[in-house]
Write a structure and sequence with these properties.
It is a single chain. With 562 residues, the protein is mainly α. Among the domains are: 32 residues; 97 residues, no CATH class; 84 residues, Cytochrome c-like domain (Cytochrome Bc1 Complex, Chain D, domain 2), CATH 1.10.760; 81 residues, Cytochrome c-like domain (Cytochrome Bc1 Complex, Chain D, domain 2). Helix content is 42%, strand content 2%. It has 25 helices and 6 strands. The strands form 3 sheets. Strands 1-2 form a two-stranded antiparallel ribbon. A hairpin with a 4-residue loop joins β1 and β2. α13 packs across α15. The chain is flat.
C-alpha cells in the first residue's frame, strides 16, 4: 500500500515537473519568437532588399525623450520611424514617418497619438485594453493630438474660414503655393509651379503683413512670368479674408475647420474652454482626456471608444447623459464628425513651461483668444446656439424659446446701450450669462463688436424716443387682469417665461424703457409668435392705448423683486 502511494506521488511529481517545464518552454518561445514586435520585424526583414536585410537587427527599439519624459517602444513595430532606420520605403505603417512639424525622434509617439508607449504588444500599445485611460487616436482624428500642447489662436467661424479659403483659391494662389498637399502644380502656358513657399504651416510660423504689396510689386516687374499670369489685384476685404484663412493653417488639416465649426454653433455660450465661455454646461477644457473606462456606454451602440460616445452624445445628448439640458441641435453627420474631432483635441499635457509652444504661451500667459474677435465670430462662438445663426431665436423641443435678437422690430426699439448692457449683465435666473461681469466672459471691445454685429443682423437703426424712460401711467389692477388674460399663456402667470421670454426679470425691466414695452405690446414682433395687441384679430378685439399702458404699469411692479 505504501509502495503504491509512493509510486503515485512520483507520477504526480513527474507530470507536475513536465507541466512546469512546458509552461516555461512556452513562455520562452513566446518571449523570443512569438511576440508581436518580433513577428512584425521578421516580416519587415523578409520584405527588405537583401543589402538591407543582412544588416537589419531583430531587437527592441525605443525613443527616449528626457524633455517630455517619454520612453516609447512604438518603433519596435513601426521600425521605419525609429532614428537611423528606413524601414520599408513608401509603406505607411512600416516606412518613414510622414513629414510633420515635430520630429518623432525628439518627442516620441504617444505624446501626439496617445496609446501606451512602453508596451510591445499591439493591443497594449494601442491602448485598447481594459483600464488604460488613453487609447490611441484613430486615423481620422490623428491631428486631435495637437491639442495636447497647442492652442491654435484666432480661429474664425466656419463661414469666415470658408470665405477666406474661397478667396485664396479664386486668386489662384495654389498656382505657386502648396497648401495641405494641394497646389504648386505646373500651369498651362508653360509657367512652372511651386514658385512660392509651402503655406501648410504658415499660421504657426507667421507671414509678412505686406505680402500683398510684395506680390503687386513683383507683378509690375517686366518678364515676371507667373506673377503676371497668376496674380491680380485684390480688394481689402478679400485680403483680410485670405489673412484670416492663412492664420488657420498650422499643419493640422481638418482641425482648424473643426474648431471653426465650434466657433459657429455657439458652443461657448454654455461651455467653458480654457477659462472662457459659459457655465451652463460642463467645462470642456480637458474633455478629450476622458477615460473611456469611466464613461457609460449603456446607450451607445458600437465600439466603446470616446469618439463613438461623443458622436452619440451630439446626436441625442439626453439619451447618453440622462437629465442633460443640452438640446438636440439636428446636426448633420459631417458636423458631428467635425465636433468629435475638435473635442478630442481638447486635451492637455503637463510639461514645463519651457517646452510650451508659442501659441499656448500667448493664450495662457498673455490672454490671446483662441477665436477671432470680429463680430461674426464672436456671435457664432457665444450666441448662435440660443439666438440662431441670423438672430431668429431658437426653439428646441422641451425648452423655452430664445429671443429673436436679430428681429428688426426689436432692434428699432432698443439702443446700442441697451444691447451692450444686456450682454454685460445677462438675465439673472435664465440661461443668459452676464458676459461682461463673469469670469471667462467677454471684454468691453468684444461686446462692442458684438453689438454692432447684432445691429447689422436686423439692418435697422434705433428709432430714438423723445419721451422719458418712465412715462406710462396706468391702472395696475387692470393691467394684472389683462396680463393674465392675454399674456400669461406665453410669458407665464408671473412672467417667468414659457413660449415667450421671461418678463419678470430685474435686469430686463431696468433696461427696458416704457416706450419699448408699450410698442412691443401694441405692434408685436413680425416673424414671431408675439402678436400686436393694438390691432384686433378674428379671436380677440384690439387693446386700447390705456389698456396697454395698464399692462406696462403692472410689469413695473416686478422691478426689484427678482
Amino acid at each position: 500500500m505504501r509502495a503504491e502511494k509512493m509510486k503515485a506521488n512520483k507520477h504526480l511529481l513527474l507530470w507536475s515537473s513536465v507541466g512546469t517545464l512546458a509552461v516555461f518552454l512556452w513562455a520562452a518561445v513566446n518571449e523570443n519568437f512569438l511576440t508581436d514586435w518580433r513577428v512584425i520585424q521578421w516580416g519587415i526583414q523578409a520584405r527588405l532588399p537583401a543589402s538591407q536585410a543582412d544588416t537589419f537587427t531583430i531587437q527592441l527599439r525605443q525613443i527616449v525623450s528626457r524633455e517630455v519624459g517619454a520612453t516609447d517602444r512604438c518603433v519596435s513595430c513601426h521600425v521605419g520611424m525609429a532614428p537611423g532606420e528606413s524601414g520599408i520605403e513608401g509603406d505607411r505603417i512600416f516606412g518613414r514617418h510622414a513629414d510633420v512639424v515635430h520630429d518623432p525622434a525628439s518627442y516620441g509617439c504617444a505624446v501626439c497619438h496617445g496609446g501606451q508607449g512602453r508596451a510591445t504588444e499591439t493591443a497594449d500599445a494601442h491602448g485598447t485594453v481594459p483600464h488604460w485611460p488613453e487609447p490611441m487616436l484613430s486615423k481620422e482624428y490623428l491631428f486631435a493630438g495637437c491639442g495636447g500642447c497647442h492652442t491654435h489662436l484666432s480661429v474664425p467661424n466656419l463661414t469666415q474660414l470658408e470665405r477666406g479659403k474661397a478667396r485664396f483659391e479664386q486668386a489662384d494662389c495654389l498656382a505657386c503655393h502648396k497648401l495641405d498637399g494641394r497646389g504648386g502644380t505646373l500651369r498651362p502656358g508653360g509657367a512652372g509651379g511651386q514658385e512660392g513657399p509651402d503655406l501648410s504651416r504658415v499660421g504657426a510660423y507667421g507671414f509678412k503683413a505686406d505680402w500683398y504689396e510684395h506680390h503687386i510689386n513683383q507683378r509690375k516687374k517686366p518678364a515676371s512670368g507667373p506673377w503676371v499670369s497668376a496674380f491680380g489685384a485684390l480688394s481689402k476685404s478679400e485680403r483680410l479674408a485670405i489673412d484670416e484663412y492663412l492664420r488657420s493653417r498650422v499643419g493640422a488639416p481638418g482641425l482648424s475647420e473643426a474648431k471653426a465649426l465650434f466657433h459657429t454653433l455657439g458652443c461657448r455660450g454654455c461651455h467653458k474652454v480654457r477659462n472662457v465661455g459659459g457655465d451652463d454646461g460642463p467645462d470642456l477644457t480637458a474633455v478629450g482626456n476622458k477615460d473611456p473606462g469611466q464613461v457609460s456606454f449603456a446607450q451607445v451602440e458600437g465600439e466603446r471608444t470616446l469618439a463613438n460616445w461623443f458622436k452619440k452624445h451630439f446626436r441625442s445628448p439626453a439619451s447618453v447623459v440622462p437629465g442633460s439640458t443640452m438640446p438636440e441641435f439636428g446636426l448633420t453627420e459631417r458636423q458631428i464628425d467635425q465636433l468629435t474631432f475638435y473635442v478630442l483635441s481638447l486635451r492637455r499635457r503637463s510639461y514645463p513651461e519651457a517646452l510650451w509652444p508659442k501659441d499656448r504661451i500667448r493664450a495662457e500667459r498673455f490672454g490671446m483668444r483662441e477665436f477671432a474677435t470680429d463680430g461674426a465670430t464672436l456671435y457664432g462662438t457665444f450666441c448662435a446656439a440660443c439666438h440662431g445663426a441670423k438672430g431668429e431665436g431658437m426653439r428646441y423641443p422641451g425648452f423655452a424659446a430664445f429671443p429673436a435678437i436679430g428681429n428688426p422690430d426689436f432692434l428699432r426699439l432698443v439702443s446700442d446701450d441697451f444691447l451692450r448692457e444686456q450682454i454685460k449683465r445677462g438675465r439673472p435666473g435664465r440661461r443668459m450669462p452676464a458676459w461682461g461681469q463673469q469670469e471667462g466672459g467677454l471684454r468691453d471691445e468684444e461686446i462692442g463688436r458684438l453689438v454692432k454685429y447684432i445691429r447689422d443682423l436686423g439692418a435697422v437703426a434705433y428709432e430714438r424716443d423723445s419721451k422719458p424712460r418712465r412715462w406710462v401711467q396706468g391702472d395696475v389692477a387692470e393691467g394684472e387682469r389683462l396680463f393674465a388674460k392675454a399674456c400669461g399663456v406665453c410669458h407665464g402667470e408671473r412672467g417667468e417665461g414659457r413660449e415667450g421670454p421671461q418678463l419678470n426679470n430685474r435686469v430686463f425691466l431696468d433696461l427696458a424703457a416704457d416706450t419699448y414695452l408699450f410698442k412691443t405690446i401694441r405692434n408685436g414682433r413680425t416673424g414671431t409668435s408675439m402678436a400686436g395687441f393694438g390691432g384686433g384679430s378674428s379671436v380677440r378685439g384690439a387693446m386700447t392705448d390705456a389698456e396697454i399702458s395698464s399692462i406696462v404699469a403692472f410689469l413695473r411692479t416686478w422691478e426689484g423683486k427678482k
